[in-house]
Amino acid sequence: MATVAIFDIDKKQVGEKEIADAIFNTEVKPYLLHDMVRYQLAARRQGTAAVKTRSQVAGGGKKPYRQKGTGNARQGTVSAPHYVGGGVAFGPQPRSYKFKLNSKVKKAALCSALSSRFQSEKITVLNEINLADISTKQFAEVIKRFDLDGALIVIDKPDNKVELSARNLKNVKVMRAEGVNVYDVLKYPNLVLTEAAVTAIEGALDR
Description:
By secondary structure, the protein is an alpha/beta fold. It has helices at 21-24, 30-44, 103-119, 136-145, 160-165, 182-187, 195-205; strands at residues 2-7, 13-19, 123-126, 151-155, 172-176, 191-194. Helix content is 33%, strand content 15%. The protein has a six-stranded mixed beta sheet. β4, α5 (160-165) and β5 (172-176) form a beta-alpha-beta unit. The longest helix has 17 residues, at 103-119. The chain is elongated and about 95 Å long.
């Protein structure tokens, strides 16, 4: 099994931890990452774009002029698409952009994302993130101490001090272990996990 160093928030190494190769050090498969990112972004789309068809436009119940004798082409209604203010032909209608992905694919994609961060040495494991108060400045100092130019911080349980301290930091996001996903792991250049979060992720993906 691979091992990672464990640090405290003062960047002092306090130990080492073995991590599961099947989760953090497996083969990185780019096509799985691509499929999973597409899946997540598609699920976020609202799909509410809509236009009125000719049957939904108000008015147009009467022919604009008589059928014959005017020299013009026959017209049935002013709600037809070729009239200004008429309905739209083949325009967008509310729809869902979601598509299905096998649960095994989702799991394998997340393992690939975590492995890509481990193999590029972009994972930092902390024994805990213990802040005395809610302080953006204090949390920014921790980020700077580890030379992290943008990071996804993963904690194992709700912690208002950490979550609120990081809320206004640019390119930093705090997430609980159960919410870890491929898109966010790939979006942020560094991944910071607490020791307990590593255990929680391994427990969830080792089923």
